Amino acid sequence: MEKIYLDHAATSPVHPQAAEKMMQVLTTSFGNASSIHAFGREARRILDEARQTIADSIGAQFSEIIFTSGGTEADNYAILGTAEAAADKGRHIISTAIEHHAVLHTMEYLESKGYDVTYLQPDETGRIRAKDVQKALRDDTILVSVMYGNNEVGTIQPIAEIGEMLRNHQAYFHTDAVQAYGLVKLDVNALNVDMLSVSAHKIGGPKGIGFLYVRNGTKLKNRNFGGEQELKRRPGTENIASIAGFAEAVKIVQRSLPEKQQQYNAFKFKFMEILRQEKVEFLLNGNAEEALPHVLNLSFPKTDVESMLVSLDMAGIAASSGSACTAGSIEPSHVLVAMFGKNSERLHNSIRFSFGIANTMELVETAARKTAEIVRRFQQK
Question: Is 325 a catalytic residue?
Fold first, then answer.
């Protein structure tokens, strides 16, 4: 049975060129980038080139990129580092009810420490209104954290509009761009963000590596202590092989970004077109216009998510119920709760399909027809 992977929003396969680059570095460049001898200098060269490649990809400066273990650490560092560094200016933070748990659980921790967090609610397409950020702003607001594109439904937020609004406010602006990076053109200056989080494994890079963009002049209190690596911001010997693989994946996605946007959007609309042809009842969760190209979240009335996922898996289709970090949980998606309310049937019948480098139009069409067969069995009972 042919297996079709439609869960790229959870993680993507490592691109062969990125894997090849990693193996090359692992076997030939084992030096410590802090050492001054030739082995160390070679590791430093690889590290510096990777940092420049990634900085260029978002319009940042070399000194504004901090390598992390992934998106979760980047989110944690941005939020906790800012909260502690700016505590003398206020203890109010604005975020949203649809953030990744790496953000939401960090906010909950800060609330336990006496910080006041305002969680903005989305509309039924999953979109936050910029004017709601404006209404929530206070003189003691020190941080606004709004994700760029939602990992469950794909809705893109008005980041540039919010950034412009905050230009003359003391609050720092952070965006979790883990799902958007590599699929949407990002320019930190056009967006006017102070911090931006990214993870390599969403774009064909290895797991366990990511970065946090921190605009020069942004004050963060360090979370770890040790040496002077990562511009004295994140101590610890750098994971050079993974960083090199990350940079290679970045080069690949930057070259193919417009092409992939078009391809994944075509996958998304073809999938829905086939479901309509097959007379399957479904609803789109998210925003059809302002959306990430690779994420398709659908509600199938008269089905239940657990049975659907098992049936899809048995048919060789890998999909999910939303965030990979809550896989196996019986709790409904917090994103769908925020969008539709806690009593909505969509909480129990929604599936996320997400596309990536492992897919072709032929595979997507096959997956759509198999999905239609499965859904029809449930809906005809």
Answer: yes
* Distance separating alpha carbons of residues 182 and 258, to the nearest angstrom: 10
Distance CA 216, CA 78 (A): 13
Q: Name the catalytic one among 288, 314, 325, 361.
A: 325
For domain 4-12+256-379, give its CATH number from 3.90.1150.10, 3.40.50.300, 3.90.870.10, 3.50.50.60. Answer: 3.90.1150.10
Pair 240, 46: CB distance under 8 Å: yes
Cβ contact 97:338 at 8 Å: yes
Helices 240-277 and 361-379 sit at what angle, rounded to 10 degrees?
A: 50
* 137 touches 94 (CB < 8 A): yes
Specify whether the CB–CB gap between 48 and 56 falls below 8 A.
no
What's the pTM? Answer: 0.95
pLDDT digits (tens, 9 = 90+) for 159-207: 999 999 999 999 999 999 999 999 999 999 999 999 999 999 999 999 9
HEC readout, 31-86: CCCCCCCHHHHHHHHHHHHHHHHHHHHCCCCHHHEEEECCHHHHHHHHHHHHHHHC
Note the CATH number of domain 16-251: 3.40.640.10
Assigned token pair, 305: 């998510």
